[in-house]
Design the sequence.
């Protein structure tokens, strides 16, 4: 993807018009994977590319049947990832705030 679109290009209002933003969803009990992904990005992708670390995961549908993913990420997991981003020196990007409450805001209201 990076070879196709390159680094982000912004307009005069700061809106991205072209380029790559990598989005990564942090899952509970899977911080090692997130650290590996972030390290790979740091070592293999141009530093101008933006990284969006999403922390909004919460269990829906049948996720409650699997203990590993039957909860949102903990504050400790969140802090560990945030610290790791700083440790790696990733400067371009965003990390969502810790989802303290109201995770339902991320679920679309589907009509059947």
Sequence:
């Amino acid at each position: 993807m990076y070879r196709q679109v390159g680094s982000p290009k912004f307009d005069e209002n700061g809106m991205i018009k072209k380029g790559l933003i990598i989005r990564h969803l942090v899952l509970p009990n899977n911080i090692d994977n997130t650290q590996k992904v972030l390290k790979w990005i740091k070592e293999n992708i141009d530093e101008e590319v933006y990284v969006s670390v999403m922390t909004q995961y919460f269990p829906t549908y049948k996720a409650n049947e699997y203990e590993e993913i039957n909860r949102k990420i903990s504050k400790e997991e969140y802090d560990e990832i945030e610290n790791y981003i700083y440790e790696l020196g990733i400067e371009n990007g965003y990390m969502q705030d810790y989802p303290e409450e109201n995770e339902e805001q991320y679920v679309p209201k589907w009509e059947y």
About this structure: The radius of gyration is 16 Å.
